[in-house]
Every structure is written in C-alpha cells, then in structure tokens.
Amino acid sequence: MTERGILAFSGGLDTSVVVKYLQEEYDMDVITVTVDVGQGDDQKKIEAKAKKLGVIKHYNIDARKEFVENFIFPSIKANALYQKKYCLATALARPLIAEKVLEIAKKEKVTALAHGCSGKGNDQVRFDITLRSGSDLPIIAPIRDKNLDRVTELKFAKKHGIEIDSVAKRFSIDQNLWGRAIEGGVLEDPYNEPPEDAFIWVKTKNLPDKPTYMEIKFEKGIPVAVDGKILEPIKLIEYVNKKAGDAGVGIVDHIEDRVVGIKSREVYETPGAICLIEAHADLEKMVHTKHENKFKSIIDDEWAYLAYSGLWQDPLKQELDAFIQTSQKPVSGIVKLKLFKGSVRVVGRKSEYSLYSHKIATYGTESTFDQRLAKGFVELWGIQSTEAIKLQKKMSTKT
Ligand code: ARG
Questions:
Q1: Any catalytic annotation for residue 123?
Q2: Distance 397 CA to ligand 1 centre (A)
Q3: What number does the ligand 1 atom closest to the CA of 256 have?
Q4: What is the CATH number that goes with domain 3-176?
Q5: Coil, helix or strand for 223?
Q6: CA 175 to centroid of ligand 1, rounded, Å
Q7: How is the chain split into domains, by residue range?
Q8: Has 14 been annotated as catalytic?
Q9: What is the distance between the alpha carbons of residues 311 and 188, in angstroms, rounded to a whole number?
Q10: Phi first, then psi: what are they for 396, rounded to 5°?
Q11: Which pLDDT score is estimated for 398?
C-alpha cells in the first residue's frame, strides 16, 4: 500500500518543495491542506498549484473566523507582545493550522504528517507540538530532516518547474489577518534598514498631513466596534489594519530570541495589532486596580512567551487563560487613538467601570481627598527603605 502524507500547504517555496520531496524521496501520495487565516491568497490559485505538483487531493479550509475569535481575541485580552514587540501573528496561526491538518489526517487515514518548517525556526516547534498532542503518526519535515538551505530549495524548485514569485525570492514572508512577517535577504544584516518595497500593509510615503482618529469600543476585553460602527470580528481586524496602515502605523523591527536559541532580526507589519493592543492595555489600566495591573502584566508576558514557544496547549496556558478571562469582566469602554505619520497615541478613554475618580484626583477645590492622611501613609510605606538606607550609610562610614 502506498504511504499517504498530509501537508499544510501555503503554495510558497518551502511547502511546494516538500510536496515534491514527499513524492520522490519518500514515495508518498500527498494530500495538501490550505488553511485560510486571512493571508489574502487566492485559494483557487493555491489549489491549482497543488494539483500541478501532483497531489492526490487538496483541501481548502476557511478558518478566519475561528482564528479571530479563538486566537486573536484571546491575544488581545492578554496584550500579547512577545519581547514587548511581536504580536505573535505567525505563532497564533500555527496551532490552528495544525489542528485542521489533524482533522483531515483522521478522515483521510494518512500514514504520516508532514510540514515545511526548517530546523532553525519556531514554526517546527508549534507544528510538532500540536501534531504530537493529537496524533502518534510519524512527522516528516524534509527541510529540517535534510538540512536544506534556501538556495538549494530555490534550485530544487527551478528544476521541478515550481514557480516562486519575486518577493518570495528576496524575503521569507508569512502573513495572516493579524500581521505580516518579513525575514531574510538584506534584512539578515541587522543594521540594514528595511527597503521600502518590503512593506505592503503600511504606507511609508506620502502620509496624510492631518492626524487620523480611531475610536475602538471594547466589551469584556473584545473589540466590537470601531469609529461608531459595530463590525463582525474579521471585518473589524481588516478595518483597523487598513486605517492604521494608511496612517503609516504598524512597522516593527526588532531582534527576537527564537525558541531554538537563535537571535533573529524580524520585521513586521502589524498595524491592527499595535492599535488594538495599545487601546486594550490602556483601557485595562483604567478599570483594573493597581494590583491587578501589576500582576496581569506578568501573566500577559508569560502568556505571550508560551504562545510564541509552541506551548499553546500546555495546561499553564489554559490556566493563564482562566485568569485573563476573569480579569476581562470590567474591560468595556471606548478608547480614542490618534494616528499621525506612523505614530499612534491614546488620547482619550472612557468606561462605565472606570476606577478613575475626578473628585479624588483633581487638584481643584472640589477634591474629596484629604491630603493630611498621606503623611502617615508615606511614613509607613517607606519605613523599611529609610531604615535600610540609614544603616548602609552608617556602615559605609565605619569601613
Ligand atoms: N519570527 C516570527 C515567529 O516565529 C515570524 C516568523 C515568520 N515566518 C516567515 N517565514 N517569515 O512567529
């Protein structure tokens, strides 16, 4: 009986090369699955590409709604930015794509699971762990297993008549509704400024001379309306991406620590994520106590770390989700953002759960805060610190 391998297929260089490898080197029939998480590709074209490569069956799955509701929204609630910068666009999509592959793997009774990840990146971690959590079938990753580099892949692709578009030749791109990651090529020198034509979502030239305002309405931590319009989840993300990108907002350029220990230079276009997370985090500060704010930022950091590191299914991540979910009860209100020539700033916020009290905070005559109470509070608050400093001074004069 011929072996049957299943593969998450994007139509890009890596996964196209893998189809051929599975057929030729592993003598397998190949089933491809393209999961739409908002990468904006023409599904028909990808299907045609897969068929041209000789796959026995191809599946197209529209998982955009699930992606937004079960992955992007939880990440907004967690203000999830890995190393304070990366909104996890690729990282969030991987467990979902792998789940979908597993569903079809069961139906099609395949004998092996395959993916197009290299042994240098994070995606292998995310794919392997999700696949392993749901199946005992062997995992084949030809790029990793055969230690292939990009030049060899490009040659192999050429030999097999696999078409690769010109952007893919210069960079390695991964995109979905939550962001666009650009790696490789000239960007591998961390001192090289990204060329302007690397950017597609964010305008870098001829930016408007007037600021753009954006009002985001949240209900229990989830964005539900923008600029007074209630939008369903996919539309909402698309709307914010477009509006912020047009104002030049959304480029991130940083050095990132990969799971396997490599430091990599990563460039992203994530206009929607930047605005939504900025707005959400700001609203939380208004409705949460100081103690909640302090603790939640630790939880958020850990959540982003786990999601980045392929541990989406780990019990700890589920436990953090439970905490975060409870914390979102009062996170309802409106945040006003000002976008101008690439910058974004919160310029207003309001909520029925606001803990901000004008009569407590004001410096005016209507203040109800009795300043005299502060004297004793400050004395007690600093008692250990002041004692310690006095002692240090005394000891240093002795020596
Ligand atoms: N560094 C990011 C991550 O690990 C993005 C990777 C994007 N992949 C790509 N082929 N450009 O999630």
A1: yes
A2: 56
A3: 1
A4: 3.40.50.620
A5: strand
A6: 9
A7: 3-176, 359-398
A8: yes
A9: 27
A10: -70, -25
A11: 83
- Amino acid 170: pLDDT: 87
The tokens describing 378, both together, are: 């400050």
pLDDT at 164: 80
Euclidean distance between CA atoms 227 and 278, whole angstroms = 16
Cα 321 to Cα 86: distance, rounded to the nearest angstrom? 19
> HSE (CB half, 13 Å, CA atoms) of 264?
18
Query: Does the beta carbon of 125 sit less than 6 angstroms from any atom of ligand 1?
Result: no
Q: Per the residue annotation, which of 75, 172, 264, 327 is the catalytic one? A: 172
Cα separation, 54 vs 19, whole angstroms: 8
pTM for this predicted structure = 0.96
**Pairwise CA distance, residues 390 & 13, whole Å:** 66
Pocket test for ligand 1, best of 266, 306, 308 (most atoms within 8 A of CB): 266
Quick one: pLDDT at residue 165? 77
**Beta carbons within 8 Å of 29's beta carbon, 6+ residues apart:** 2, 3, 4, 5, 23, 56
**Kind of pairing between the strands at 3-8 and 57-62:** unpaired
Backbone angles phi, psi at 344, to 5 degrees: -135, 135
- Backbone φ and ψ of 263, nearest 5°: -90, 130
- Map tokens 């050429």 to a residue: 158
Q: For the chain, which residues score pLDDT lower than 70? A: none
Question: What sign has the CA pseudo-torsion 25, 29, 35, 36?
Answer: positive
CA of 231 to the centre of ligand 1 (A): 29
Q: Is the CB of 181 under 6 A from ligand 1?
A: yes
Cα–Cα distance for residue pair 288/234, rounded to 1 Å: 28
Q: Which atom of ligand 1 is nearest to the CA of 94?
A: 12
Contact assessment for residue 253 and residue 224, using Cβ atoms and an 8 Å cutoff: no
Active site residue 126: no
pLDDT at 163: 83
Give the nearest ligand 1 atom to 91 CA: 12
pLDDT digits (tens, 9 = 90+) for 143-166: 999 999 988 998 999 999 888 877
Atom of ligand 1 nearest to the CA of 14: 10
Amino acid at 297: S
Q: Using a 6 Å cutoff on CB, does residue 80 contact ligand 1?
A: no
Chain segment 282-322, per-residue pLDDT in tens:
999 999 999 999 999 999 999 999 999 999 999 999 999 99
Q: What is the 3-state secondary structure (H, E, C) of 328-374?
A: CCCCCEEEEEEEECCEEEEEEEECCCCCCCHHHHCCCCCCCCCCHHH
